[in-house]
Amino acid sequence: MRILLTGHQGYLGTVMAPVLSSAGHEVVGLDAGLFADCVLGEPPADPPGHRVDLRDVTAEHVAGVDAVIHLAALSNDPLGSLAPQLTYDINHHASVRLARLAKDAGVRRFLYASTCSVYGASGGGDSADLVTEDAPLRPVTPYAESKVRVEDDLHALAGDDFSPVFMRNATAFGYSPRLRADIVLNNLVGHALLSGEVLVLSDGTPWRPLVHAADIARAFAAALTAPREAVHDRAFNIGSETNNVTVAEIAAQVAEAVSGAKVVITGETGADPRSYRVDFSRFRAAIPGFDCEWTVQRGALELADAYRKHGLTREGFEQRFTRLAVLRAASGAGTVDDTLRWRR
Fold first, then answer.
1. C-alpha–C-alpha distance, residues 6 and 239, integer Å
2. Which of 10, 18, 43, 240 has the least C-beta neighbours within 10 A?
3. Would the pLDDT of 201 be above 80?
4. Rounded distance, CA 327 to CA 322, Å?
5. Residue 253 has pLDDT above 50, yes or no
6. Which residues pair with 210 in a beta bridge?
7. Read out DSSP for 155-192?
8. For residue 292, what are the CA distances in angstroms to 183, 253, 298?
9. What is the pTM (predicted TM-score) of this model?
10. Going edge to edge, which strands form the sheet with 207-212?
11. C-alpha closest to that of 171 among 44, 312, 294, 33
């Protein structure tokens, strides 16, 4: 199968591309390259690809493609809050335009990287109920809102010859050659190693569903070849109930992984309204035999080992592997313009 993988030079795409290739697929990447140099360790071997902004995709980029895996996006809440209109332009409008081009080109399956953040303030943290895919969507950030809008618009495009699938990933963690240090477990492990403290700015009570980047890659690979009736126009939470944990519990796991580190919960940002525990059983039912392999504890140990092995520095942790800092530096240097496009 010939796969167009958008965001192939990102945190998740760098892990996913070799998983797809190993499964026998021909992978073609598409990425603006904004974070291509955010490498910790050996430089990854990327598949052939197009260096193009998502907003500038044309019909030729989807010609001859059997399926699209769409990961590319402004990828977290601080970025979305910094430039909400850009978030909607890239994450929403450009994503739907890509899907329309793909449908017109005869692409039959479109796997969309959505997020469990769409549940926002839906609850599930203080009750015994886990949030299912049928729960109300109550996004609290431009990033999550853009994901909801794309899901709605892709649903409208679904038909006999075009199957969108909405993969609502839990919060990712784990080592990738293109690292992100601005997601919760990756951040806490880095801070613990560099400072000796597992620093939690919230009160530690919010629940978070977590999932390893490698398990996300395996889930997408499975959904790619699943029978149409199992996945067509359906939303799936991607993760494991085992990894529904509070931020305080995450911090405790990090302290175990980084010997000598102490947990410091400042509470300065207060309670986060985004608190929810998630039910992941629908995807397991649709894909018999699938289950996540990585726990938070194992991921914390993996990250600590990788950070030590590859010499993570404070500068890298705070600047090179933090998305907002990378974009601010590029803007300050004049290499990207106000719309986050490369200057010619």
1. 21
2. 43
3. yes
4. 9
5. yes
6. 171
7. HHH-BTTBEEEEEEE-EEES--SB---SSHHHHHHHHH
8. 19, 18, 12
9. 0.96
10. 171-173, 207-212, 244-246
11. 294
Cα–Cα distance measured from residue 288 to residue 248, given in angstroms and rounded to the nearest whole number: 33
Instruction: Write the pLDDT tens digit of every residue in 58-78.
Output: 999 999 999 999 999 988 655
Single-letter code of the amino acid located at 115? T
What the block records as the tokens of 120 is: 């926002």
Return the closest-CA partner of residue 334 out of 325, 319, 320, 344.
Answer: 344
Three-state secondary structure call for residue 222: helix
CA pseudo-torsion sign 299, 301, 306, 307? positive
What is d(CA 197, CA 157) in angstroms, rounded to the nearest whole number? 48
Distance CA 243, CA 48 (A): 34
CA distance readout (Å), 80 to 94, 169, 310: 15, 18, 30
Termini Cα distance of the chain: 35
Q: Mention every residue, 6+ apart, whose C-beta is less than 8 A from residue 16.
A: 5, 8, 69, 71, 213, 216, 217, 220, 221
d(CA 114, CA 211): 13
Write down the residue that tokens 């933090």 correspond to.
Answer: 322
Q: How far apart are CA 124 and CA 119, in angstroms?
A: 10
**Angstrom distance (rounded) from CA 145 to CA 133:** 16
